[in-house]
Amino acid sequence: MQKLEVFGANKLRGQIKISGSKNASLPILAATLLTNKKIILKNLPKVRDIETMLSLLQSLGSEIKFDKNRTIINNFQQNKKFASYNLVKTMRAGILVLGPLLAKHKSAKVSLPGGCAIGTRPVDIHLKALSKLGVKYKIDQGYVIASAPKGLKGNKIKFPKISVGATENLIIAANFARGITILSNCAIEPEIKDLVNFLNEMGCNIKWISKRKIKIVGVSEIREISYKVMFDRIEAGTYLIAAAVTEGNLKISNIIPEILKTEIDVLKRLGSKIIIKKKELQIIGNKKIKSTKIKTSPYPGFPTDLQAQIMVLLCKANKSSVIKEDIFENRFMHVAELNRMGAKILITGNKAVIQGNINFAPAELMATDLRASVSLILAALTAKGKSVINRIYHLDRGYENIEKKLKKVGAKIRRIN
Asked: Considering 116, 186, 204, 315, which one is annotated as catalytic?
């Protein structure tokens, strides 16, 4: 089992180029199932979740080739409709193949998803919404068995709560539904906007008609395209916090700063200096970190995927801070490990009260999920001495070459077997 050794405490200095977005790539890859034509994708990140999704597409009959920074997907022989548990168990995004398979083949059998153990993540919102397009389904032995014998038919659907995955699944499926579909109370994450851009370039007819409402006119044919996936805003946010927590000076490149407005505002409020350029940010960390209250919420709010990382920074604030986790009910699993490093964090329900003025001590640590694992790296970067982080396979699901990128800007970190 691989682990990471981190030797603190160094200030990070230099430039980090941000990779393509994992959370944008996954639904775009699922959406390629709609077509039998060739799709070329650029800027896919080299992370395990993307490898898993590509393996899932291959198991469904997609032909995949790699050429430099391009992934070429050809679905001219794609005819399988079974997504097995073995491929979906490590990644919740596996459920996203359900919509396109139903749209294209009128039936599918897809395993219920896995991924990080950070909450229940029910797929009932996906299934109830798909049923309004004419899908009949049952759940049997951990599989969703679904069919639409007459094909999908457009409808008006209002999501009971904002769900990124359900919004993506329905956007993809509704493109082949007869007539018009109106989706309201949609998630509006930048990754969803990227999915819509991708589908429209393929020849779909999708329009935002208000902030959280989408109109989709069904089409019968789509074309070959080449598409570049957007940058990973969670990776960018993680490295911004890494600079702040180590009192470093980093340039974060290959990004669109407007997409990170909330994260920039929070870090400025906490005392970091941030210089905004066209496709780059420079962040200079401050020794004096201010306390604050943060609530995670759907975009454009503060992302739940950066909650663990910002908590590390708040441990160093001048007073106590509060984080309210409003997305997932089990997303404080990193707290026990941070407390072992000297943090003083008290959890009450979905609130974490974080005592400030903490100096982290090195320790042997255990990663519990993707974002928790990177929060432990951030804490270890500030601790004087050697920390060891176990179970880093979580980390490899969502961060491309993290130790190489950190080494390049002055971190002492290495992977060991």
From this structure: 116
